[in-house]
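TA notes. Do not distribute before section.
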Amino acid sequence: MSLFIGIDSGTQSTKAVVYDAETKRVIADGRSPHHLISGLPSGHMEQDPQQWVDAMDQAIHEALSSVDRSAIRGVGVSGQQHGFVPLDKSDQIIRPAKLWCDTSTVEECEIITDTMGGEDSLISMVGNRMLPGFTAPKILWLKRHEPENFDRLSKVFLPHDYLNFYLTGEWFMEFGDASGTALMDVRTRVWSNEVIVAIDDRIRDCLPGLSSSSEACGRVRKEISEKYGIPASVVVSAGGGDNMMGAIGTGNVSQGIATASFGTSGTIYAFNDEPVIDPRGEIAAFCDSTGGFLPLMCTMNVTTVSEGFRKLFEKDHHELASAIERAPIGAGGLVMLPYLEGERTPSIPSGSGLMIGLNGKTLQSDYMIRAAVEGVTMGMNFGLNRLRELGVTADEVRLTGGGSRNEAWRRIIADVFGTPAVCMREDEGAALGAALQSAWCVSRQSDPQLSISSIVEGAVELDESSRVEPEPSAVEFYQELQAFRTSLSKSMEPLYEVHSRFKS
């Protein structure tokens, strides 16, 4: 028996799964919550990395409670992208981690972009725009706002790197997660000297070595082996960002498939053999964690919006689905820009939620809930449309995340995307992907030419009972509504800057 642990350290919780490579099934799982630091100024989103460690320990212990621990062969870690974990020379955490959803670095993005000659020049050098969520502006933020902490900076980690470090004592970064820092040229897969200089040349020594995603991070430390009761020979794979691991866990390792994650944030991405550079910078030109590329669009507001309206109107999840179904397509002309936490794509960090079309008929919960769900779905479709414009094919969209399990919402997804939509049997795609990458890493030690596709085959199953085909008339309706929504969002961009003056 060969078992592999997959970890997904997310924004709100850490999940662990145990994958049996012989039966190609997940046989056990565990979960533990963790929390954002409260009371921070608007735009600041931070967590204590020790919470990730504690949650991972608890989730793994829960997952291993009913399995043969001696059969564990590997561990893979998925973590939230872009976060900045600063360590000093003694490998102690300097301050809480700034997360992907932190939008406090708008000025730093502007400084780096201007220093590098503008947005077009920046994209030509590294392949991506400089966005507040990325790691690079967070480092400059530390230099500008906490110079004493910046002086202590010795090592830059991403969240999953930090957990790898805890497990193995090794410090390195794989190409997939590194591509989301805006510090790496995604074409050449090397650190960008220009971005480093734009921040501070001293951080050159604070960045780890870069490595292929197929390589091992190392073996578990003696303390970890004893703590978890697993063999000292257990290999920790390179791991990767949650989207990269989610791609593996949904079988998105060849062209023609897109994955859409309807979680706290919304992401949509597709595998590609070559880098996909968006001259407008709306699509992130990421590497994946298998050796290919993962062009991706991310929105910041998905289940935060649906859950907000569900709680506002005091409905359970079944009642939420019923509300969506009772309201007509298009919610009677009620259109929502769901930018409750600002927005990443389009880049409107100062944005806020907006509804247009309120009247005596639409001023009720059913219409407002449907408008919110349609709004976040069209936000993600903005990215899917842009992927298609850049030549990325998507004949099927595989869905993950809590929002996709809502049948009424899934119908809207298929119609808005204009593409068949289907859920996965195993919904913890990132955790499964981490386990599969670990199995791939270990298997390659005896067969260096083994493809990730051969590992994924049979391990990733679609829930065909969830499949929804798009309805042509609804697709046509949403295409028109999408165009209106896109125009509305664009026209609001300068007004959001004005409106930000009135926020308390």
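Switch to the second chain here.
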Amino acid sequence: MDDIAQARQEGTGDSNAVDGCHAGRDTMIAAARAAGKSETLDRLQADYPKGPHDQPQSMCPAFGSLRVGLRMRRVATILSGSACCVYGLTFTSHIYGARRSVGYVPFDSETLVTGKLYEDIRDAVALTAKPEDYDAVVVINLCVPTASGIPLDRLPRDIDGVRIIGIDVPGFGVPTHAEAKDVLAGAMLRYARTEAEQGPVQRPRGPQAEGPSISLIGELFPADPVGIGRMIAPMGLSVAPQLPAREWRDLYANLDCVAAAAIHPFYTATTREFGLAGRPVFGSAPVGFEGTAAWLEAAGQAANVAQENIEAAKNAALPAIRDALAARRIDGRITVSGYEGSELLVARLLIECGAEVPYVGTACPRTDWSDPDREWLQSRGVHIQYRASLEQDLAAMQEVRPMLALGTTPLVQKAKERGIPAIYFTNMVSARPLFGAAGVMALADIVANQTRGAERFDRMKGFFQGVGGGDVAGYGWTGKPETPAGFKDKQRRMREARARAAEAVGT
């Protein structure tokens, strides 16, 4: 039996198994398992465990994988999913600055059930995989193709030297878009590792730092890897190209490191590949004075650096950080919440700047790599909520009444409605340096700028009291909306009629 026939027989589920994008989570999971995706779901569940509730409110998780692929040179990305999902993902990607086209393989109920969708994907990959244009082609299954069992693992491993990588990133299997970054980053690193194990590979493009290197795991502000490079230089270490990578060749340089730093601690699949390559992984990041000292110590030990060189690195980096902390003190209570994975690091830095941080909420899960930051924060009375929901973040903000709330868009909106200064974590905090003395100055300046005009919120709240909320929310109202006469009775009769009709069908 050839691939196509086998895909038709084994790679798709029952035609009634998936009720489109709007089927419930349990229905989608059951359909995916029935269609042969149990191993995939088990791996996703192990790498990205849910709880304490189902999953945090976030954008479609697949956006994370899409973002990783679109930022790489000579990498094409093809989406397999419902048209509405593809539209939303590509629209969002362009808002975030993507200047690349995204491939799309459409389907209908017939092509989905018969296995023709698999053939269409295979054909699209074959047309795209031109070695003069691309090093790799990434195919991403969204919810419905995953639930229907579309077998991306049956795609060729490569075509004319162009690597083919197929991944499943269903919303019912990956909790957040942050972790979806890891799904693709880990799959690429696994592919690159097997290539390196089989023989010589291409050198990364551009000049490479001499000596042993440290790989930094996680999306960082562009100035931060440069700053870290200066910090570890006294130890004879350099910084490898950033991971997630900017092009395929960089993956080889990442694997050629002496140790990897899990700056963002949720990259489970990625850290596993470093472990399989025999590279030690350590957590946290050089934030603040204590955080930087501990991180330099961990980096030096992981790279087997002499203690005198570790101390030299500390002596070079720490005085400037101490001076910055003394010059930019923060006095007040701040809550921190977000879904980037750096929430604990930001909280550490705020506390070292003098702020009181009673609550940190992160959409990401607890991992071994976040333990150093978790233990440090908990020893100072901070409540840390992993897999935080919006409701938990809002409850914490309302309870402690901070002078400033760092959070997601809906939290910022609620905070400002209550006269609490607030800033969007992703666009404000993540878009600035975080490490070393530069991180201290950047974060302290943000807090100062946002809290300086706190009295403005009180004036605005008083001025607009009773406007734009509750029954007067929206545009163009001149009074309180009133329910039309007889409307409720009409709706009640319609509900009763639908209930009777449903009972009749059931009999």
